[in-house]
Specification:
The complex is a heterodimer of chains A (about 120) and B (about 120).
Chain A lengths: L2 E3 L4 E5 L4 E3 L2 E3 L5 E8 L6 E7 L6 E3 L2 E6 L4 E6 L8 E9 L6 E3 L3 E6 L1
Parallel strand pairs in A: 2-12
Antiparallel strand pairs in A: 1-4, 3-9, 5-6, 5-10, 7-8, 8-9, 10-11, 10-12
Chain B lengths: L3 E4 L2 E4 L4 E8 L5 E7 L6 E7 L2 E5 L6 E7 L2 E7 L7 E8 L11 E2 L3 E5 L1
Parallel strand pairs in B: 2-11
Antiparallel strand pairs in B: 1-3, 3-8, 4-5, 4-9, 5-6, 7-8, 9-10, 9-11
Classes of the chains: A mainly beta (about 120), B mainly beta (about 120).
Chain lengths: ~120, ~120
């Protein structure tokens, strides 16, 4: 069974601080995919990144970076120099190759960036 | 263009009403999804269509009836709903159900449904 844990329910930071959102996953499949989505107050889930289980390279996109470590089953997300517009709920999700179409979402982390 | 549109944005209905939610995408995606999301919770998968055929039904009550009239459209017909069905209903699409990066789901803005 697949499972995603986002232990941080809420995080509050001041603008320009760096912040890391944790994601730990469980799966028995050897081929799987990990995602991060952002959900601002408007409600739409915005796709941020997809990683497959064979690609452990870290990725950087502007102020966003992701650290994928299979050894600890973690896929953490760091925002550098946070901004007020980063305030949102962030979801980590897992999709198994043998369970196509069924993504398991973590409970989400609510990030508040204060000016 | 990675846009999924949903109408209406808001819907208020009584328990005896019949209404429909509509979702549309023009990205050529062949998989489409309905999710239900309660406040402060993650999205819960309801239905998945692949190539216009129902592929997954997550044991959703029959008062929710999905329909995929063509590859761009996905409807959710609602009938005899309960107040606990009030939620944000999200539609998503992906190129295909699985494989490479084609399984990335792109979400619409959702329909906020209130059942009185």
């Amino acid at each position: 069974a697949q499972k995603v844990t986002q232990a941080q329910t809420e995080i509050s930071v001041v603008e320009k601080e760096d912040v890391t959102l944790d994601c730990v996953y469980e799966t028995r499949d050897t081929t799987y995919y990990l995602f991060w989505y952002k959900q601002p107050p408007s409600g739409e889930l915005v796709f941020l990144i997809r990683r497959n289980s064979f690609d452990e390279q870290n990725e950087i996109s502007g102020r966003y970076s992701w650290n994928f470590q299979k050894s600890t089953s973690s896929f953490n997300f760091t925002i550098t120099a946070s901004q007020v517009v980063d305030s949102a709920v962030y979801f980590c999700a897992l999709s198994e190759n043998n369970n196509a179409g069924k993504s398991t979402f973590g409970d989400g982390t609510t990030l508040t960036v204060k000016p | 263009d990675t846009e999924v549109t949903q109408t209406p944005k808001h819907l208020v209905m009584g328990m005896t009403n019949k209404k429909s939610l509509k979702c549309e995408q023009h990205m050529g995606h062949r998989a489409m999804y309905w999710y239900k999301q309660k406040a402060k919770k993650p999205p819960e998968l309801m239905f998945v269509y692949s190539y216009e055929k129902l592929s997954i039904n997550e044991s959703v009550p029959s008062r929710f009836s999905p329909e995929c009239p063509n590859s761009s459209l996905l409807n959710l017909h609602l009938h005899a709903l309960q107040p606990e069905d009030s939620a944000l209903y999200l539609c998503a699409s992906s190129q295909v159900l699985a494989g490479d990066s084609g399984d990335t789901q792109y979400f619409g803005p959702g329909t906020r449904l209130t059942v009185l």
